[in-house]
Amino acid sequence: MKNIVLFFVLLITTLSCKDEKRIYLDSNGRMNHLLLVIDNSDWNGEVGDKLKEVMKTPVLGMPQEEFQFDVSQVAETSFGKMFKASRSVLIIREDSIRSFQTQRNVYAKPQQMVKITGTDKADVISMLEENKQKIIATFKDFDIQNIQETHIGNSYEEGYFNTLTNLGITLNIPKFFKKVDDTGDFLWLRQHLSGGIAKGDGSSNILVYSVPIPEDKSDLVMTISNMRDTIGKKYIPGRKENMFMITEKAVTPVVTETELDNKIAYGTYGKWEVLNDFMAGPFLNYAIEDVKNNRWIVLEAFVYAPSVDKRDYMFEVEAVLKTINIKN
Questions:
Q1: Which end of the chain has the lower number of beta carbons within 10 A, N or C?
Q2: 3-state SS, residue 287
Q3: Residues 141 and 159 in one domain
Q4: How far is CA 171 from CA 131, 160, 179, in A?
Q5: What is the DSSP track for 69-118?
């Protein structure tokens, strides 16, 4: 009898271990790309129109209009093993209840899946409208995390850059970014782009510095634009005298309040240009309120990539900025 009991205990333990060691498919897919699982009739109807509207939400700060996601569509009846290995999957269907569900690593790893249901077509459309920003944020946060994880093990060690040490902060900066300037008060890093039309000419850039928290924050657009122009004149020269980086005046930046490292931060999306020159591109500036030290920690990403889309380049640098940790 004891042997029988022991046999079943071992069997249950073995099955449990197998479940814990579940083998996942290796996910495939690019950043900012979604597989949409939705029946063809819905995709070609009003539900699809609303879904396309969500997918075509413009990315802030781009010189030319670029959308949040590239998409592929497949009917649920065709959602087989090959498609189930997709990295980012959005499932849309009618059901007996309305719901917004998120799951990680359902069929593959890493994988982000979102499922949206409504009781009829009108309800599905309503759910898409209600959860528009949540859909975007869920997949964007997932892609940001994936990018950050790929940098682990290939980043500069803490203390490598004088400016970060002096400011009392850390950033997980991959080693393909090279130092342009590191004064102790101002850090400029650059990655030369290696693909597409921008190859050899384009670059992704990171800036880090601090300024006192402004006494008057009633006009954040003007305050942050002026701050950027001052820094550009001092540290970011153009090819000739009287050329330096400024905030483009013809395009009003957009400022949003967010949070980084559990602190209030102002994210500014806009376009930079070089005064008296033809160089220009998008920028993302984070001014993080370090109230304890009465300062803004300023992180900026800007990209120069003429003749090519810039969304993914900006997204990759944004992922680096979001590793910020303020230690003191």
A1: N
A2: strand
A3: no
A4: 32, 11, 14
A5: -EEEEE-GGG--HHHHTBSEEEEEEE-SS-EEEEEESSSEES-EEEEEEE
Q: What is the pLDDT of residue 10?
A: 53
Q: How far apart are CA 170 and CA 158, in angstroms?
A: 7
Q: What digits encode the pLDDT tens for the residues 6-36?
A: 555 455 555 555 445 667 788 999 999 999 9
Rounded CA separation 160/168 (Å): 12
Q: Which residues contact 88 (CB under 8 A, 6 or more apart)?
A: 29, 33, 34, 35, 111, 112, 113, 139, 142, 143
What is the average per-residue pLDDT within 220-231? 96
State how far the Cα of 265 lies from the Cα of 297, in Å rounded to an integer: 9
**What range does the domain containing 81 cover?**
20-150
Q: Give me the mean pLDDT over the 283-301 stretch.
A: 97
C-beta atoms surrounding 201 within 10 Å: 12
Helices (H), the chain: 2-20, 40-43, 46-55, 81-84, 121-130, 132-151, 162-167, 220-235, 311-321
**Which tokens go with 57?**
């939400």
Q: Which of the listed residues 99, 133, 150 is the one where a domain comes to its end?
A: 150
Q: What is the pLDDT of residues 30-60, one digit of tens each?
A: 999 999 999 999 999 999 999 999 999 999 9
pLDDT tens string 64-90 = 999 999 999 999 999 999 999 999 999
Can you give the pLDDT at residue 273?
A: 94
Check which CATH number belongs to the domain holding 132 and give it: 3.30.379
The torsion defined by the Cα of 229, 235, 238 and 240, in degrees rounded to 10, comes to 110
Structure tokens at 10: 């071992």
Domain end point (choices 101, 128, 150): 150
- Does the pLDDT value for residue 290 go beyond 90? yes
pLDDT tens track for 189-201: 999 987 555 555 7
Same domain for 125 and 158, yes or no, is no
